[in-house]
Design goal:
137 residues, four-stranded parallel beta sheet, globular, alpha/beta, single chain
Length: 137
């Protein structure tokens, strides 16, 4: 996962070098992809890149206490899933500019995110469409 996160950081930096504003970049990951997104945020250390996490904070990631998130973070989890809140990462990440976390209750566990369901797609789209002015920048 570390190699994928480092590649993602290189890709983001390339976009920025090409003129894309960091505030126009969002990294969004589900499950293992969410853990990769967390690691990418940790390596990137950007206060402007937005980070979206879907069922991305398993209990065993708590062992990686050195991980820090940066920027504007959105988290979503399913209440019937064993993968729950990302609050513990926020608590150890003073560089987070804003944090919004939403839970959904479909009864589908981790599988709630396997298909595009309005329960998670609609709130994620709404978050993605927010301007940075709404984030307090």
């Amino acid at each position: 996962m570390k190699a994928f996160a480092k590649k993602l950081v290189r890709d983001v930096n390339l976009l920025i070098e090409k003129g894309v504003k960091p505030e126009n970049i969002t990294l969004l990951g589900f499950s293992r992809g969410g853990v990769i997104t967390i690691k990418a945020s940790h390596y990137l250390k950007s206060p402007k890149v937005r980070i979206g996490l879907l069922a991305a904070c398993p209990r065993d990631i708590k062992d990686g206490a050195e991980l820090r998130l940066y920027g504007h973070v959105y988290s979503m989890f399913e209440t019937s899933d064993s993968v729950r809140s990302c609050q513990f990462l926020i608590d150890q990440s003073p560089q987070v500019t804003s944090f919004n976390e939403v839970s959904i209750s479909t009864g589908q566990g981790h599988g709630a995110f396997y298909r595009p369901r309005p329960e998670w797609v609609d709130p994620v789209k709404a978050w993605l469409n927010q301007s940075l002015f709404e984030f307090g920048n």
